[in-house]
Amino acid sequence: MGLLDTIQVGRRGLAAASAGIDVTAQNIANVGTTGYSRRKLVQTTTDPIQRRGLWMGTGVQAASVSRATDRLLGVRLVASAGVAAQASSLHETLAIAEGQLGDTGSTTLSDANDAFWDSMSQLTTNPSDLTARRTTIQAAGDLASTISRIATGLSATMTSVEDGLTTRLELANAKIAEIGSLNKAIGRSSDETGPADLLDRRDQLVRELGETVGATVDLQADGQATVFIGGHAVVNGAAARPLTLGTAADGSPEISVGSMHVTNDVGGELGGVLTAHATISGWIDELDQFTTTFATTLNAAHAAGFDATGAAGGDLFSFDPTSPGASITVSTALEDPSLLAVAGAATAAPGDGDNLASMLTLESSAIFSSSTRTAGQALSDFSSGVGSDVSAAGGDADVLDAQLSDAETQRNALASVDTDEEAIRLVEYQTAYKAAARVLSVGDEMLRTLLQTVGG
Known about the structure:
Blueprint: H1 3-29, E1 39-45, E2 49-51, E3 54-56, E4 60-67, H2 71-98, H3 109-123, H4 130-186, H5 196-213, E5 216-219, E6 225-229, E7 232-236, E8 239-240, E9 243-247, E10 253-257, E11 260-261, H6 268-303, E12 317-318, H7 324-327, E13 329-330, H8 354-360, H9 375-415, H10 419-455
Helix pairs in contact: 1-10, 2-4, 2-5, 2-6, 2-9, 3-4, 3-9, 4-5, 4-6, 5-6, 6-9
């Protein structure tokens, strides 16, 4: 091996050490960057040469820069992020809707129901007392307004959810398009030797897409990422297919990929709000069913009596059959308390409260859910059912968040930057650089000496 070969070995050593310093500097600079994977310089020896029967090494070369990453862990992290975001979004949305049942200072359904029946009970002591009649009519109005306030609030929450779907889809589609562009830029290079910064950015976007719509990913060995919603690919290589928002036959939101409906496959934040939308819709339906049965039953009972003028009673409550809960009110005719039909006969004495007594029996009558529950029980079950749904969603969110934290801990242990470790590597590369520079210096001196000797 000649002096020129020695100088070349030193030069390659300088280049490798310089590349190592560059990689270390990149790690240190990105210690706080979300989604960054620690880099490592992969060095290999160069091919040896044979001189005078001896195989001599020719130095080192910087072969590639690898990322500290694990494909299976990456797939798990995306999936965990999606289900955790879905559970969290579901819980947050249901909790907001639950607030409609009992905001601070507002009357609860059970309290309003109890107050209504109590007022009727008190009216039995003097059915002809106009003040007591007004109190009963006011209590009926308070119950109706409480039901209407809650139903309207739940409907407003659903509308808010629907309004937010377009924004969430636009965000998801932007990520889908960018992932396809990054796949194209990455090309067919392997995960070990590909453009690490682009791979990190692509992987971070895939995770964010998982959080947004519950996408899953197949991180292939060649560096490409195929992204799915359900079994349908939304990103395949550079090709990207956007999600579209439509309306199903029942009026509920419907998400599609091309011509395929994937609403039931959507997860993440979007899946959470879709589930919340369906759950809140069920709450509204239950409240509407209660309202229809309650108002119809009380109206029939009231119509069976007679008011202070001897006329048959009219409706106690009014409501729109298309949205009973949101529209229920006390009949406008009862602005005159004398029209409350408490008497049992048209010619009854002023103190007759026979129909009032008959109406009061409905408080303990099982007229809801196939004649198994009273009005009080139905309202109590409704409120407790809402609370149970919210509590269950919160429990799921806590469990899935813990699972996500576990996956993130594993990912950080593998891929995060340790500044102490990088400082050691920096010293190692700096020392290697100085040593390689010394080899060059020595080789140069020897070559100069040789040339001077030959020349002399």
